[in-house]
Amino acid sequence: MLVELADRFGDAAAAKVLNGEVLTADGGVVTAATVLQPNSFVYLYRDLPDEVAVPFDIPILHRDENILVVDKPHFLATMPRGRHVAQTALVRLRRDLELPDLAPAHRLDRLTAGVLLFTVRREVRGAYQTMFAKGLARKTYLAQAPVDPDLVFPMTLRSRIVKRRGSLQAVEEPGEPNAETRIVHRGDGDYLLTPRTGRTHQLRVHMASVGLPITGDPWYPEVIDVAADDFSAPLKLLAQRLEFDDPLTGVARFFTSTRGF
Question: Which fold has domain 60-256?
Answer without folding.
Answer: Pseudouridine synthase (3.30.2350)
